[in-house]
Design goal:
Blueprint: E1 9-12, H1 21-32, H2 49-52, H3 58-66, H4 80-88, E2 94-99, H5 110-122, H6 124-127, E3 130-132, E4 143-146, E5 160-164, H7 172-177, E6 180-182, H8 188-201
Parallel strand pairs: 1-2, 1-4, 2-3, 4-5, 5-6
The structure holds magnesium ion.
Magnesium ion binds near residues 15, 17, 147 and 148.
Length: about 200
């Protein structure tokens, strides 16, 4: 009897992957502090913005990142929307958005603003496929597309990390251990093939 493998579960992070968290920060930062240093995304060395702007008060950065409407107004990452519209109808995967809410965010609005963002940019269908979890290691899946250099939690993840390329995750240490890297959303067809090939041969 032929055993049919269930299709792989694809988890997709939001910030820095489909929603351009840093672009929004930069816009607000430059508006509030036009005379301060502003680092372009392509030159951002650290995952945590505070670490890249350590000469300035941490509260100034936190205030921008945790004030209501910040998440709501994130611009989409290039080609993310079009690609996710393709992914949702791709029969090869069961796909979900998997995002960690910021619990420091004003009035806990981060949860609803993330959902509103998804509905506005991707449509209601994706709202049914939205997982909010502070700990992504608890979420079952085969692949997680995420820009965070290292993802830890209370369990060993069931998923393989597909590193969504950013300068801060393009380090020798990460390159050495990574199996998959998505340079940007235009490269999805190639990575898609690689993931399906991996899934079918493991
Ligand atoms: Mg992220």
């Amino acid at each position: 009897m032929e055993i049919i493998k269930p299709r792989p579960i694809l988890l997709i992070d939001m910030d820095g992957v489909i929603a351009n968290y840093y672009a929004r920060f930069l816009r607000v930062w430059q508006m509030l502090y036009p005379n301060r240093k502003a680092i372009p995304l392509k030159e951002l060395e650290g995952f945590y913005i505070e670490s890249c702007y350590s000469e300035y008060p941490e509260e100034d950065i936190k205030r921008i990142l945790t004030t209501s409407r910040f998440f709501r107004n994130l611009p989409p990452v290039d080609h993310a929307i079009k690609t996710l519209q393709e992914i949702i109808v791709d029969p090869a995967f069961d796909s979900f958005i998997c995002t960690a809410p910021d619990i420091e965010y004003q009035d806990q609005l981060c949860f609803s603003e993330k959902a509103q963002w998804v509905e506005e940019h991707l449509g209601k269908e994706w709202l049914h496929k939205m997982i909010l979890s502070k700990d992504k290691t608890l979420i079952h899946g085969n692949y997680l597309i995420d820009d965070k250099p290292s993802i830890h939690g209370v369990r060993t993840p069931s998923w393989k990390h597909v590193v969504f390329h950013q300068k801060y995750n393009h380090t020798e240490e990460i390159i050495k251990r990574e199996e998959f890297r998505l340079e940007d959303w235009t490269k999805w067809p190639t990575v898609r093939e690689a993931l399906l090939n991996h899934h079918n041969t493991n």
